[in-house]
Amino acid sequence: MAQWCFVGVVVVAILAFASAARLPTDWGRCHRTDPNLEICLRENVEEAIHKLKNGSPELGLSSFDPLDIPELVIGEGKGTVHVTQHFKNLKLYGLTGSKVLSSSVDFNEKKLYARSITPLLRLQGHYTMAGRILLLPIVGDGECNITLINTKINHTLTAEEKIKKGKVFWTFKDYSITLTPEKMTYKFDNLFDGDKALGDNINQVLNENWNEVFSDVREGYEKGIGAIFHNLANRVFSVVPLEEIYLL
Ligand SMILES: *[C@@H]1O[C@H](CO)[C@@H](O)[C@H](O)[C@H]1NC(C)=O
Ligand SMILES: *[C@@H]1O[C@H](CO)[C@@H](O)[C@H](O)[C@H]1NC(C)=O
């Protein structure tokens, strides 16, 4: 079965694998020839994500909720966001609450697709920024809490085949996502050296204009979070042969 999408997201602490690993025995598998392959995938991927809430010793994965993101840099936008957002020691909460809306695989093109929705995603950690947003100056260095509500994510993964010891593995050359939150809230602490009135004011402006702000830098978030999914998906797929994932 395929956890690519979030299996990907899966996790971090992967042990070093000397050779091929197996999927946990209690995870569902799908047959490649199943006429209902897409339904099977959707169900099994979602179940795997929920099971991974506690990590998977078989795969050497620790829990990925929260997922640790040591560093994330979101560049300036082309519109109202004239500031680079530097995040450090972020924790991303909520991925294991994701629902998989659909998923499919194209063996000829070696592509995987999935759509998911995550009811509540929260990024918490340290930020620094100095620039302008919506024409207002914004300078800060402190803790932040960025919450995304009902975020639809489209996942498109492009694989290449590798043969190791006679078994076929997929590694992903590309993992692209689109992020579409229904709503976002920003809370940046310690803006303007802790000037509370100014800081509250800026947070309020950001929240009232969240969509304009997010749209301008959305590509940065998609690249940053997509890169994390990409890395994690490859960690799983590079150790589990394809025949373990989709039964032949
Ligand atoms: C983060 O912000 C959300 C939305 O404002 C809020 O519900 C949540 O309690 C905050 N969490 C923390 C840990 O500050
Ligand atoms: C996500 O995929 C769906 C179904 O293919 C499509 O309707 C939607 O426009 C896509 N969203 C984005 C942001 O590309």
TrEMBL record:
Coiled coil: none annotated. The keyword Signal applies. Pfam families: JHBP. It comes from the Eukaryota. One of its GO terms (biological process) is circadian rhythm. InterPro entries: Haemolymph_juvenile_hormone-bd, To_sf. Residues 1-20 form the signal peptide. Gene3D superfamilies: Haemolymph juvenile hormone binding protein. Keywords: Biological rhythms, Signal. GO terms for cellular component: extracellular space. Belongs to the TO family. PANTHER family: CIRCADIAN CLOCK-CONTROLLED PROTEIN DAYWAKE-RELATED (PTHR11008:SF32), PROTEIN TAKEOUT-LIKE PROTEIN (PTHR11008). This is Protein takeout. It comes from Callosobruchus maculatus.
